[in-house]
Specification:
The complex is a heterodimer of chains A (289) and B (315). With 289 residues, chain A is mostly helical. In chain A, β1 and β2 form a beta hairpin. Chain A is globular, with a radius of gyration of 21 Å. Chain A has one domain. Chain A has a two-stranded antiparallel sheet. Chain A has 12 helices and 2 strands. Chain B has 315 residues and is α/β, with parallel strands linked by helices. Chain B has 2 domains: 215 residues, P-loop containing nucleotide triphosphate hydrolases (Rossmann fold, 3-Layer(aba) Sandwich); 62 residues, Alpha-Beta Plaits. Helices cover 32% and strands 27% of the residues of chain B. A 6-stranded mixed β-sheet of chain B has the order 6-7-8-3-9-10, with helices on both faces. In chain B, strands 2-1-4-5 form a 4-stranded antiparallel β-sheet, covered by helices on one side. Chain B has a 4-stranded antiparallel β-sheet with strand order 12-13-11-14, with helices on one face. The chains are: A mainly alpha (289), B alpha/beta (315). At the A-B interface, α1 and α5 of A face β6 and α2 of B.
């Protein structure tokens, strides 16, 4: 009950402070811009060894998938920053301002306040991901004639990536100032992405040590692993098959993934998120105000 | 049977690393009492309140609120709290803030509207209930904080510096509100360093310094018995001197005389002597220590090391 009350409060605050309106307007503008850009790009001819010719269906599909994955990457970055900006001050700012001093002496659990904040922001983040990414996929299907193989699963992976960061940011906000939390979260997100890239390079160059760096970084912060799940579900199945057949076709491309994240890895990512929230609840319950 | 005290603490301590914020607070506040908690800045007043309302755990010691052990969540339904650092969601209206607190305290939906209306009326914000908190002055926000604390007729109310942002009219209103709370049997724990405020409304007072209670009692007990007298008298100076001298040393300034070391029981005899000597007696006032004088004495004198005599024209 208290969790839902705090979640509603968090959502209402986002609406009243015009966060939702601002994001909605910018997303519509982005959709219009990307629709126009897709339309222009798909009309361009293809070229091989200096010969210009009309693009084949496969070329167009590859272009469509690449553009959609690039947009997905942009959204993944925006959501990472958004999750850090929303989560980092979630409790710290209310503690610092004194708002929580009046609320916490009520007959409520501190853990419920934290979970309520998380739920409200999670609905905001996941809702935005679904609407914004869904809109881009519709535009892609109309202008590029490309529909990813598993659009809903791809959106779920992008949302999950943001929710991992949101959980970490809220846990940090019980102890660390908003500014420091925000910077740390963005930094970790970048390091995890670079770790994933390093792991890919390690695999191509047959360096087990560097490959292990990627594995460890994807376990320490599962954002890059989840982003790879999104890519896998956005790219054409044929591309994956071609890569498996000719192993160097797309190797080293940061926007290509050959395999979906494994079931145990997804369980690890889920457990990681729950652990971050539990640590946050423990930390908040011990926090002296 | 003696009713349970509203607040009871036993050797309650709070230590932050090497600093002792509260050193063994042991006291009891009776149900229905207006209890003042006085002390200089940094004495441990707010720490004590934060421990009692559950914002900070004690390092050691025990406490009971309304008969329940400290930490009991259910008892918090019967407690109101106005923090020293009061701040409410500025994007909400005052009424919405109160609805939120009704929900958090688990109040039945049916009773909310009347409870909110009553709380707004008590603090004089009835006309501003639908306005955004962000448009409120600091004083109005403190009034809103008071409304939040009084929501749902709590049995015990903690007020931490409740008039710090209020003008004289607001302070008077708060004193009136506290007296009304007493009339309906609510226990009030008033944390303040405004001595006049405490002197006006409190039944008993604890003075705290460096985390320890250094005095506890009623206002009269703290101020002590008066042994000085101020007299406004007119007549022949030699007649006055003749009557007054046997009662002890005195000094005069115009028509005002100040006698030291006079027992209260000697006053009728003194007045009778003056009247029979043909002296006109206009006023006889015992000179009592103010709470501020006593407070400064307890804390080891004022900052300037001066005594606190009245101005020269009113000895």
């Amino acid at each position: 009950m208290v969790i839902l009350t705090i979640a509603r409060l968090t959502l209402r605050e986002a609406v009243r402070r015009r966060l939702v309106l601002a994001v909605f307007i910018l997303t519509i503008l982005l959709a219009i811009l990307s629709g126009w850009a897709f339309h222009k790009l798909i009309g361009l001819p293809c070229g091989d060894n200096g010969r210009i010719h009309a693009c084949s269906v496969a070329d167009q599909k590859l272009l469509g998938a690449t553009l959609l994955i690039l947009l997905g990457f942009m959204f993944s970055f925006v959501l990472a920053v958004g999750a850090a900006f929303l989560g980092a001050p979630a409790l710290w700012a209310d503690m610092e301002s004194g708002i929580l001093l009046a609320m916490l002496p009520r007959p409520i659990r501190r853990g419920d306040v934290l979970l309520g904040k998380w739920l409200g922001l999670a609905v905001l983040v996941a809702g935005y991901t679904a609407i914004a990414c869904g809109m881009e996929m519709l535009i892609s299907s109309f202008t590029l004639n490309y529909v990813p193989p598993h659009p809903v699963i791809a959106i779920a992976f992008i949302s999950a990536e943001a929710l991992v960061l949101l959980s970490l940011a809220i846990a940090c906000s019980t102890r660390v100032s908003s500014m420091a939390s925000g910077i740390v979260i963005i930094l970790l997100f970048g390091v995890a992405w670079m770790g994933g890239m390093a792991g890919e390079v390690g695999a191509i160059r047959h360096s087990q040590t560097i490959e292990n760096v990627g594995t460890v970084s994807s376990l320490l912060l599962p954002t890059d692993g989840l982003w790879r799940g999104a890519i896998y579900n956005l790219e054409p199945v044929t591309l994956v098959l071609v890569q498996r057949e000719f192993s160097n076709y797309a190797a080293g491309n940061p926007f290509f993934v050959e395999n979906a994240p494994s079931g145990p890895y997804l369980l690890w990512a889920g457990g990681w998120t729950i652990a971050a929230l539990l640590i946050g609840i423990w930390s908040f319950s011990k926090k002296e105000l | 049977m003696t009713p349970l005290p509203a607040i009871r603490t036993s050797d309650l301590t709070k230590r932050y690393r090497s600093a002792m914020a509260l050193g063994g607070l042991t006291m009891a506040v009776a149900a229905g009492e207006i209890f003042g908690f006085l002390g200089p800045n940094g004495a441990g007043k707010t720490t004590a309140v934060k421990i009692l309302v559950g914002l900070t755990p004690p390092t050691s010691g025990e406490a009971w609120l309304l008969g329940e052990r400290l930490g009991d969540r259910e008892v918090r339904r019967r407690i109101g709290y106005l923090p020293e650092l009061f701040r409410y969601q500025e994007w909400m209206s005052a009424r919405e803030v109160l609805i939120l607190h009704c929900t958090l305290m688990g109040m039945a939906t049916a009773g909310r509207s009347s409870a909110i209306g009553e709380a707004l009326e008590i603090v004089g914000l009835t006309d501003r209930g639908r306005d955004r908190v962000g448009t409120f002055s600091k004083g109005m926000q403190q009034r809103l904080g008071l409304a939040v604390a009084l929501l749902g007729t709590p049995e015990l109310v903690f007020l931490d510096e409740p008039t710090s942002a209020l003008d004289p009219v607001g302070r008077h209103d708060v004193r009136q509100i506290i007296q009304n709370l007493k009339a309906r049997g609510t226990t009030v724990f008033l944390n303040s360093h405004l001595l006049t405020e405490v002197e006006y409304v409190c039944d008993r007072v604890a003075v705290i310094d460096r985390g320890a209670v250094i005095a506890l009692g009623t206002i009269d007990e703290l101020r002590g018995t008066s042994h000085e007298l101020r007299l406004h008298i007119t007549g022949a100076a030699e007649d006055i001197g003749r009557v007054v001298t046997p009662f002890g040393p005195y000094e005069s300034k115009g028509e005002w005389y100040r006698l030291r070391h006079v027992e209260t029981r000697q006053v009728p005899e003194l007045v009778a002597g003056l009247v029979s000597a043909g002296v006109h007696v206009h006023a006889v006032e015992p000179v009592r220590e103010t709470l501020e004088d006593r407070f400064l004495q307890l804390l080891g004198g004022d900052a300037d090391g001066h005594s606190h005599d009245r101005p020269a024209d009113t000895p």
